[in-house]
């Protein structure tokens, strides 16, 4: 026990193939016909969240737990797309909520921001206590205070309490800025403002954050979510022509729909293997910075996935379950497998991955059970 990189002793390719086959089997065996009629309902956003967290978890198995790029390839290659999917869903969800029921800045912080912090604080407290008791690890008072405030300037897989928490810092920036700049009549303008701010902060790194190389790769996905919510918004007693066109295409165009899904799948497959700036010299010449090219590649893949999930007429319960617990899985998965792993010591690597995938959901369910009464109490006192 303790945070160490595991060296695989079994056949990497064989282990990877078993995990891929098991993953595909679970996804397809849990597929059922979709029952929704909306373009972008909760069932679709849940599946996209599930896809997003799985890309992140697979990447952390590959590059942090095992540190062998061949392990779980190619499942592990698009973690950046998973991060963008989460930011997209956040921008979309917050905008839909604000367009239906506008809130003042303080009310937004009480209703929305606190909901992010409650499970985060509970998970963080458990991590600090567990690391102190079982690993004799003390992070220091100031580190714990900064962590409780959501400030994680580094993303060190072995020194930080939970290196994926770099995302909390970046996400909180959007949550803090969103109500300050939200314009109900022009959400697209809000999206532009937030994207510009994020690009400037990511490009200049004013706080000299060690994790900024991750932040700057994810500057525009939140704003894309805002634009999507604006484009798909349906006003009372009015039809949205774009929404009606998408519905008509999805429901009444079989061959063209399959062709679009196929093209999007090919884009995902190709671009996911060509995300580096050196793969796109012309784009690099236009954008100038390598990270902007890599960000664009992630956005292209992300939007291709969105199109696929919007047009498909089936849904996977497995992806939906992982989506429903995606935030909890994000909060706990790396400390568990990074510092408290026993499965990789006693099981073949493929079996260890599969067992961990089950454990992540079970622990996330437990965390959600702990969070629910606290959230209900906070709701009562903040009304």
TrEMBL record:
Keyword hit for Transmembrane: yes
Top-level taxon in the UniProt lineage: Bacteria
Keyword terms: Acyltransferase, Membrane, Transferase, Transmembrane, Transmembrane helix
Membrane-crossing residue ranges in chain numbering: 12-31, 43-63, 75-96, 116-135, 165-183, 188-207, 213-234, 255-272, 292-311, 318-337, 349-367
Name of the protein this chain belongs to: Acyltransferase
Protein species of origin: Aliarcobacter cibarius
Positions of the Acyltransferase domain: 48-367
Classification via InterPro entries: Acyl_transf_3_dom (IPR002656), Acyltransferase_3 (IPR050879)
Single annotated GO MF: acyltransferase activity
């Amino acid at each position: 026990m303790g945070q160490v990189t595991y060296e695989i002793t079994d056949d990497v390719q064989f282990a990877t193939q078993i995990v891929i086959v098991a993953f595909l089997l679970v996804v397809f065996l849990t597929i059922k016909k979709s029952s929704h009629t909306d373009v972008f309902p909760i069932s679709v956003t849940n599946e996209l969240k599930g896809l997003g967290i799985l890309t992140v978890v697979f990447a952390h198995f590959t590059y942090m737990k095992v540190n062998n790029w061949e392990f779980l390839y190619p499942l592990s290659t698009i973690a950046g797309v998973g991060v963008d999917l989460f930011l997209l869903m956040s921008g979309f969800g917050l905008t839909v909520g604000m367009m239906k029921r506008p809130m003042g800045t303080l009310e937004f912080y009480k209703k929305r921001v606190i909901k992010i912090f409650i499970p985060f604080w509970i998970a963080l407290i458990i991590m600090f206590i567990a690391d102190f008791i079982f690993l004799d690890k003390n992070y220091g008072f100031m580190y714990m205070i900064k962590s409780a405030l959501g400030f994680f300037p580094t993303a060190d897989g072995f020194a930080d309490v939970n290196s994926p928490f770099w995302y909390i810092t970046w996400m909180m920036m959007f949550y803090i800025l969103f109500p300050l700049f939200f314009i109900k009549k022009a959400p697209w303008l809000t999206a532009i403002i937030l994207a510009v701010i994020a690009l400037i902060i990511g490009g200049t790194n004013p706080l000299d954050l060690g994790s900024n190389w991750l932040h700057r790769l994810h500057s525009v996905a939140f704003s894309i979510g805002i634009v999507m919510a604006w484009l798909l918004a349906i006003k009372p007693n009015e039809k949205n022509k774009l929404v009606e066109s998408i519905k008509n295409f999805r429901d009444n165009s079989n061959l063209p729909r399959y062709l679009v899904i196929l093209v999007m799948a090919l884009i995902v497959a190709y671009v996911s293997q060509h995300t580096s700036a050196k793969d796109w010299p012309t784009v690099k010449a236009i954008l100038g910075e390598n990270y902007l090219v890599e960000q664009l590649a992630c956005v292209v893949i992300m939007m291709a996935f969105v199109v696929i999930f919007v047009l498909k007429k089936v849904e996977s319960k497995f992806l939906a379950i992982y989506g429903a617990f995606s935030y909890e899985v994000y909060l706990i998965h790396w400390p568990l497998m990074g510092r408290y792993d026993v499965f990789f010591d006693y099981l073949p690597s493929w079996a260890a991955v599969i067992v961990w995938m089950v454990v992540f959901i079970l622990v996330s369910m437990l965390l959600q059970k702990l969070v629910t009464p606290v959230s209900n109490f906070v709701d009562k006192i903040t009304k």
